[in-house]
Amino acid sequence: MRFCCFRYGSATRAHASRMDGLGRTAPRVALLRLAGSSHWDKNLLLIVAPAAAGTLTHRGEVLTAIAGVVVFTVGTAAVSIFARALAGRSLRGHRYVVASVLAAAASALAFAISVRFGDCVSGYLLLAGGYLTGLREVVMLKTPAVAAGLLVRVCSGVPLASAYPSSWLLFTAACGAAVLVLARCTDESGHSFVVVWQRQMLTLAIAATVLGYAGWALAYVGRDVAVPLLMLSLLPFLFGLVRSGTRPARAATGVVRKHDAVVLAAWTLWGVTAAGALYLA
User: Fold this and answer.
1) What's the pTM?
2) How many helices (H) and strands (E) does the chain have?
3) Domain coordinates of the chain in residue numbers?
4) Model pLDDT for residues 113-127, shown as the tens digit of each residue
């Protein structure tokens, strides 16, 4: 089976053998290349909570958010190297050592920022380790496990904003993570019930995410937020979500591209309208 959402969870034997080719280079260079493939872009989800709280106008909060993203990236680099150590053969001992050092450094730096942020980073490392060593082999657990990894990223941004998590934020983030994971995953086990289950869950997750986002927008009361513009941001949000959710259907017809310009434009428009509603009011 292949799980194609996170790179560290989809290392096939062909990919592992290709990564083992790094063993012909210097060990330090090979490990740096492995650490660079840690999907750092997903760590930008840590900025969601500070941005939603409206704290990115303060210099100290911005620096704290940047530091949090960097520390979390160190942790994901440790996970990436650990995944390659499990899948490959060359440099296996070096990978285990480097992964352990990076994981310990990420946890220590996270606790230096705040205790709650340290708990989030440590929890993510434990979740990723459990996924790599067993959860990804369970058909009904691998999708929730990867979605939980995205949700932990969003929750990790809450301590960076010096705030407490909103129920709307957690609900929308959880359902949105499920949409992103289910939309990018394909089941190759041959079990038709798994495919049906994934499609049903994807439909429910899209509906729940839209309702959660609309409820979050309606929950704002006051003059510090442009509510009409925030509600207008629901349109590109809905379009981008549905477009991402139709990825399995479009994959069956062979029209899926690696980078969808329409999805990128929709999410960019959503970011502009949402940021304008929160910071330009």
Assistant:
1) 0.73
2) 13, 0
3) 1-165, 191-281
4) 999 999 999 999 999
